[in-house]
Design brief:
Chain lengths: 215, 215
DNA sequence: ACCTGAACACCGTTCAAGT
DNA sequence: ACCTGAACACCGTTCAAGT
């Protein structure tokens, strides 16, 4: 009678503390908005001492990095799920845009963390394939669109950077409550996306139903 | 002989501590990149006790708000300075874009703070006229461009939101070192701005020298 | 190999007391 | 009216000691 998962007092060794810490952190990130991220609170909630996490992460920013990478994995999944392989590039871009905005709205604190992790020092996280994966999706769609002729022929990398910056900026502004209708109108987000598409679509496909004029 | 500014030990009352705190904070924000903003360090540097700032700001976020507002004032000044009244709207937009990016690059920590102040709770800072002033500049240029015929006729508010999001996103990505040339190419920023302009310029003025193709 | 508890050097904030 | 100093409840991080 040394291990009964339900009634026993918890063992000295947690077993899989690393995973538990990460999951606890992600949970708290989703629950309490504006939570001041603190290692001690995570440890408390995971029912270990406040120094236990240091056996699994060298310091706080290491955990932050790990969470950010997981965030980028999830963003990529959300984007992939939004892509319809049968659709043409412009439709895909629109789907990507709404999926990106939706991800930010659903996980505001995680999203902020993703784009904030170690904002000070130079780190190699930005070069990680996982961090870059969502961005690569955008590139691929644009390149396909250029082959289809639906996307203006320009540097696809530049267009992808434009999309990425546009969506990131819009998501951040939305998360932070800066797109107040009183100042920015009721259709600001849709209209902003229209302008993004205006810049991407090749001459002919632009004027149609995709981007209605709203003068 | 009760007050000799140079040799006397400093008086019990600072005189204009509020202003001194703000200036010290701005200085430190510019000097040390990635500085963890702390009230106690500001007080130390201003040579007052760590509780003195509380006579002038109810709490830390109040100071943050004040600094953010000053940041928006300065951003507006930088943008205004970049505008050539003789230039047409597209040229103005390009000037605004580079001024915005330049401001972020020159004041990365202040810029981050501006768009981060009290990111948690709802606050009225986003409605402040000072916060909105730079955005209004963009609106005005776009409206003028629509009158000129150089800017596509769409909701100017939507176009302004698109510009704002695009520039904010690009600035943040640049500040955070996320636009690494290995992944994004050497001309990512210029190309991204080209795509932005592609979306804003009206049909005819687009193809010309403003936005060179770089396939 | 993994975890704890005390300890250290910090924070933000409050409050009686000083000038 | 403005400022100080001690005090409180927190952090992140380290390290000897426990299992």
């Amino acid at each position: 009678m040394t291990s009964d998962a339900s009634t026993e007092q918890k063992p000295y060794h947690h077993g899989d503390l690393r995973r538990a810490i990460i999951e606890t952190a992600l949970d708290m990130l989703q629950e309490q908005k504006g939570w001041q991220f603190t290692l001690r609170e995570i440890a408390r909630r995971a029912e270990v001492s406040h120094s236990a996490p240091y056996r699994h992460f060298p310091d706080k920013t290491a955990l932050l990095h790990e969470l950010a990478l997981i965030g980028f994995d999830r963003l990529r999944e959300a984007l992939v799920a939004a892509l319809d392989p049968a659709a043409d590039a412009p439709a895909c871009l629109q789907a990507l845009a709404y999926a990106h905005l939706g991800f930010g709205a659903a996980n505001p604190d995680l999203y902020r963390l993703m784009f904030n992790a170690d904002a000070g020092e130079p780190s190699d996280i930005h070069l990680d394939a996982r961090t870059q994966a969502p961005f690569r999706l955008v590139i691929e769609v644009l390149e396909r669109g250029q082959r289809e002729g639906t996307i203006r022929s320009r540097s696809a990398l530049g267009q992808a950077t434009a999309c990425w910056a546009h969506l990131h900026g819009l998501t951040m502004l939305a998360i932070d409550g800066r797109l107040v209708p009183e100042k920015v109108g009721d259709h600001a987000i849709e209209d902003a996306l229209t302008t993004l598409l205006d810049g991407l679509l090749s001459g002919e496909s632009a004027a149609s139903g995709r981007s209605p004029e709203r003068p």
